[in-house]
Amino acid sequence: xxxxxxxxxxxxxxxxxxxxxxxxxxxxxxxxxxxxxxxxxxxxxxxxxxxxxxxxxxxxxxxxxxxxxxxxxxxxxxxxxxxxxxxxxxxxxxxxxxxxxxxxxxxxxxxxxxxxxxxxxxxxxxxxxxxxxxxxxxxxxxxxxxxxxxxxxxxxx
Length: 157
Fold this sequence. Notes:
The chain has 157 residues and is mainly alpha-helical. The protein has one domain (29-156). It contains 6 helices and 3 strands; from the N terminus they run βαβαααααβ. It has helices at 13-17, 39-50, 70-94, 100-121, 129-135, 146-150; strands spanning 2-5, 27-31, 152-156. The longest helix has 25 residues, at 70-94. It is elongated, with a radius of gyration of 19 Å.
């Protein structure tokens, strides 16, 4: 999961004059926010994002799971897009044409789609032949699509 935080500089003359425009939520969390995803999907996400050693360390079919950083990849590949979206929204926020909650919600929806697209497209490292035989698919991050469907976002105060 990643978090975008809005920083408010209270010593800025611009912000002193329009402080009311910057009231509202401060962060949007994207991925598997607490209370928004069930533990099975959180486990699958963690095991795949960071990998496991297998066996008693958890994850998968008992063997090691290689690191498949789908969330980090999606965020890294789209960081500029998120920054540009926040920059282009700044004037609208400051002039009262939109609010922080709306902007952060749009950012959350966008990042959710980017993470889901990465889950669909990630192919490396590939599944082992044993895993392919068990789940009947060679896509490393999709078995039933449940984890991909559980990716979500949440605006926090």
